Amino acid sequence: MEPNKRTSKQSLGREELSDITDDAAKKKEIKQDGYNLPGDVKVDTGRKAIKVDLGFKENWNLIAAFCILAVMLTLEYGFGIEFHKLTALIINAIAYLLAGYKVLDLAFRKASRGDFFNEFFLMSVATLGAFYIGEYDEGVAVMVFYGVGEWFQSVAVKRAKASIKALLDIRPEEVTVVRNGRTTVVHPSEVQIGEVIQMKPGEKVALDGELVSGNASFNTAALTGESKPDTKYKGEPVLAGMINLNTVSEAKVTALFKDSKLSRILEMVQDATARKSQTQLFISRFAKVYTPIVFALAFLLVTLPYFFVDDYIFDDWLYRGLVFLVISCPCALVVSIPLGYFGGIGLASRNGILFKGGNFLDVMTKVNTIVMDKTGTLTKGVFRVQQVVTNKIEKDELVRLTAALERNSTHPVGKAVIDYANNIDRDTVATDVEEIAGHGLKGKIEGKEILAGNLKLMRKFGITYPKEIEQTVDTIVVVAFNNQYVGYITIADEIKEDALQAVKDMHALSIKTVMLSGDKQSVVDNVAKQIGIDEAYGDLLPEGKVEQVQRLKNEGRRIAFVGDGVNDAPVIALADAGIAMGGLGSDATIETADVVIQNDQPSRIVSAIRAGKHTRRIVWQNIILAMTVKVIVLILGAGGVANLWEAVIADVGVALLAILNAVRIQRMKI
Question: What whole-number distance in Å separates Cα of residue 344 and Cα of residue 662?
């Protein structure tokens, strides 16, 4: 994926606010409204400091209007100096136009298309009405403080988006590639698959590859949120975004720059900010209905009293209507709620958890059942051969032929056999290899038909085997030559260090835990017992996992499924929330998932739930705060108690409080 041209170096400002509305016309016009905020404030993203523009130069007009307003109010109320009405009108009109000409322009253009129910038209009507009844300073104040509020909102939105982007946009601009025995520095996009790149100490890995040096330690925090160094050995994968810590190393490139895991993650995060939660969608729909209702109520507030009030004075009731319009502006909700979800996505990203949209933050808060695959999710997926048992064949021969077949698979069990066989033979080649999902492999070697897989594979082909091997607790690879059982290899996996605590934390949240696996039931039961899983089901084909998840859904459970293998993709798609282990996970699973855990730690599942809960709590705090204050001031304004000053201070104050509350998410711990 090519780098996003709209980087943090450019002005986002109100242009970015268009991302949180569904008004295409507004998107086009806001680009020209001038609320751009260049300046010099550093955002602490935890990984990389970036600059967010504040825009004092670009907003000189707003600052000038504020100064004129302050001087006029000081002279009038501080020194008792009263200007002639025409003089006051001219001075205030200058300040008003400085602060609000962009809003007036947008309101006019929208009105010319028949769009009267928007915040720009609302502010224009309210402020021009204030000038009509002679309340010049209040009209200027409304426009100035509205502009200041929008300015602050723009900064907050920019901070959230810049933080999310900086978390992952860490791809180097150059890489050292070894060509014809010489090193050359080029852009990573110029490097092809199979070429060897060199990484110096302190240098970022620019491309996904396979380590060809002996070993090296890497800082993987940018990808996983985990600060502990990770030591990689020859043949193990290294990913773009890791930082080489201790020695000059080399890696053979396995993916193009645009196809690296980091590039895909960047794309996921950028797409995430465009996917709206149900709360965001509700607020957008609410604002479209709410604004015309407010206009209608304001109109009735001005006109209806004429028929019922004996001493009706038009200017007095018009003033109440203007207060009603100012306080009803929905900007606190329209901006602070999406900002809350941006913050939640950024918070999760800093902890190595990628949400593909704000809607999935909401989904995670409702999950009451977590279904997990075993291998690669709760266990490390790093298998070691424990025992080789043969029947009428030499041990080395069994291992040699089985490894030749397993070289055509990426399954961790097959890799264990291959690693074990490397000391015996590496040259034997299998042909006509066929992977039978959930069973194992079939192929031909040296004229023999070879089967290697689980007991289901033996039963599928009608091969008899000793019944006692069904009692073996470890994972088992049973082998048959020419439809004759010849032995088996036992392989053991290791439970992840944080799996037990992760399950305890899930139970503390009253979440039911279920484990599904293609491994035999005895292995699954053994792992489940060690870490406290509520229900465990083994001997499952991919369709069996789907059936189990569907059964739980039919019971009314809200399910998150966690997996890493390609055969987990259908179940992840079926679950309410699909979670992929991004380190060991297959590309298909990561693409299908709604949430990606970069460091493969099951404890991060609970962190993802907490991120969702924090975000939802902050969002609803903002909704309740904004609506409560607005309703109170609306009532006071309609009753003639609140004036325009109080209305604008309440409106801007609520917006700023809601924004500060939303920004707080990014500092929380999960």
Answer: 9
